[in-house]
Design goal:
Shape of chain A: elongated
Largest sheet of chain A: 5 strands, antiparallel
Number of strands of chain A: 8
CATH topology of chain A: Jelly Rolls
CATH architecture of chain A: Sandwich
Strand content of chain A: 35-45%
Radius of gyration of chain A: 16 Å
Structural class of chain A: alpha+beta
Helix content of chain A: 25-40%
Largest interface: A-B, 35 and 34 residues
Strand order of the largest sheet of chain A: 1-8-3-5-6
Number of helices of chain A: 4
Oligomer: homotrimer
Distance between the termini of chain A: 4 Å
Number of domains of chain A: 1
């Protein structure tokens, strides 16, 4: 049994940019030398989330549209009234989806479906350099 | 310390079918021989989610109704326009709720509340055979 | 490698009360003696959630407002019609956000952003005494 800590560096466009990090996660697991266990991918910031989606062009439009319904970018946010940074909706969306995803792995590969990708979603309203924390526990 | 990998097989009705898998999770933990640790239940597919709910008839109606508000089944989805499979809302709902749940366990039992059940929700629009991945890490 | 099980006791006001538990989580990790691993914070109840947020006054108003959009407290809930406890929306919100959060830690500290706090959200409609389950796995 062992733990392994690494990071995934990303350059995002912000504004609900959805980035496929499946290959990155696979490399993290392969690099750990672990065969079976849990891999947690965590956004150390309050305007980004990690989830899974079928990474195809239709859903890449549908997902941002759904986020607009849930936390509209043009609603009035107290966060904006206080800080004038225009990203109240970004914070709310990230808190709802959550900052992290825990992915099981076996045979040194993540247990994903064929049409299922791990994605980082940057809800912030500007381009960002992100450093996701990745911690694995297993054997 | 050890890891343990197993699966939970389910037959679902789709369409926001909510299935109580608490007993299955309990069996997985008992079968692992582990006493304390983390149990991750993961849907290896992009139209299902794992969460907890008080499994009673009222909420089994309220939860699908809430999902209709969040990602209506009759909205226009680009996913459907491309693939004609009618399950754009299924994907969106699953991405919002997330594919997995990590449940702590102690004394070889999940740390759940009395009125709290672990459920798999099949958001797809058809009946499905599902195989949930379950990985435990602990001692 | 080891596991460590402890709890965080809270007194909440209910009604979307958002409580900053970052210091509690830090203490749990420090108390475990572990340096690197995963920390799962779990609400053993079906009307509370754990997530992260920038804990500042604006968002503390925006988050409850967003929850009202997603699962309005004044909508008709079958749960209420059956049990007359007025907290149908509490259950739905908790199932959507999920009962738990898994936080990676390294150097015996949680891998959080500077403006990111771990919070427990009590969606129930009454004040509650809560005992969050915390299980860590690492080395």
């Amino acid at each position: 049994m062992a733990t392994y800590h690494t990071t995934i560096a990303l350059k995002t466009k912000g504004n609900c940019d959805i980035i496929d990090i499946t290959r990155d996660v696979e490399k993290c697991i392969a690099g750990s030398g672990l065969k079976t266990g849990l891999c947690n991918v965590f956004c150390a910031g309050s305007t980004g989330s990690v989830t899974t989606i079928e990474f195809e062009g239709g859903l890449l439009k549908d997902f941002p549209a759904a986020m607009e319904r849930i936390a509209p970018s043009d609603a009035v946010y107290e966060h904006h009234l206080r800080w004038q940074d225009g990203n109240g909706h970004s914070h709310i969306r990230a808190s709802i989806l959550g900052p992290s995803l825990t992915i099981p792995f076996a045979d040194a590969r993540p247990c994903l479906g064929t049409w299922q990708q791990v994605v980082f979603v940057d809800f912030d309203n500007v381009s960002r350099n992100r450093l996701l924390e990745v911690v694995m526990v297993g054997e």
